[in-house]
Amino acid sequence: xxxxLDASAVGDSVDNMRRRWDAPDxxxxxxxxxxxVDRLRGLTIDAFLSLPKRGVEIGGFLLGxxxxxxPLMISIEGFEPVPCEHKYGPSYVLxxxxxxxxxKVLDRLQTNLDRQVVGFYRTYTPREPLLDAADQxxxxxxxxxxxxxxxxxxxxxxxxxxxxxxxxxxxxxxTEPQYAxxxxxxxxxxxxxxxxxxxxxxxxxxxxxxxxxxIHQPRILPDEPATLSRPVRSPRFTEEDLEPSRExxxxxIILLCLVVLTGGVVLYSWKSNQEQTAAKxxxxxxxxxxxxxxxxxxxxxxxxxxxxTETETATPPPEPPPAEKVERSPDITPWVAxxxxxxxxxxxxxxxxxxxxxxxxxPVVVHVTAAGKVTSAFADGKGDSLYRYLxxxxxxxxxxxxxxxxxxxSGTPMEASKTLYFIFMx
Length: 426
Description:
Elements: H1 7-10, H2 12-15, E1 18-22, E2 28-33, H3 34-48, E3 59-69, E4 72-81, H4 96-109, E5 116-123, H5 133-142, E6 149-155, E7 161-169, E8 172-173, E9 182-183, E10 190-191, H6 201-209, H7 239-242, H8 250-288, E11 339-342, H9 350-353, E12 360-368, E13 374-379, H10 385-398, E14 402-404, E15 406-407, E16 413-414, E17 416-424
Parallel strand pairs: 2-4, 5-6
Antiparallel strand pairs: 1-2, 1-10, 3-4, 3-5, 6-7, 7-8, 7-9, 11-14, 12-13, 12-17, 15-16
């Protein structure tokens, strides 16, 4: 199964879930479906993590329609990946065999009248998204239309991707993006307005030629001739049809059993409480038969006191010491660790990134409050000056994270610590 999206099969739900990128000067606008953004971002990250250090690059066709030429408005309705054998390394550079397959896929896609090839996409790891000589030759060979768009995607980590567009301008191909890159995620892109549903071309022609249909049409059975002059008869009901069904549905039987069971449990609980309440006076009576405690000045003397006529009064036994209250230690061990809700990646200048020749992993320990905020963070580990610099940037980014706080077994939010791992690739 090819990883493409058929907009006609999905229906209106796809049109109502779209994201849009607009050029700052208003010269171009490109819209995506949320499904295309998520799938294309997932394929980019999978290829990025397929090999150590830098991964591999991928590319393919962008499918959709050009809604306007001035200003340029393109609606992307799907994409078609074109595999590369990577004969010349991890970069997306097509060999002769790859170009032959590229041409066959393009010929097949051009036969589809609903969606046309509107451009090309490819990924860049770990370099900046710039069109090299091989990219320019590929675009001039297969995408010479001035309305074609070229999407350049760069994976930043195992979760984040950045993207940028390249266009034809005044008949010249721009070798680098004219506008700043943007986060390639549905939750960080602008929402596109919902479009009205579109009918297929054959349905439009039929609707124009056919007369308007009535709101209620009779159902034509297979064994009856479909005649237009046949009147519609109102349905007739017999007394048997109007008589309610006497069969009891099975779910009512289950509901009745649950009600009876619940009533039995409530009745048993009520009787138990009544028995405990009736047993309390008997216990208090046995306590009154014990020797009376010494009289308290503020309390009136009990009636049994005048009956003591003996010269020697019995000394009442000393009262037992009060039972020590055993305080339970609070549940300080988190039952569920903090979960990240908002992540921020470190910003590394190109000059510093050029000094990274191998993958560097920096653990950062953060303290998360019961409100989900980070109050302190420090980088765990030692290294050279580059490691320390990356650790400082990782700490700055970690302080901006937000979490769903940890909570105890009883569900109470509580403070906790968590270790974040920032990975820097060459």
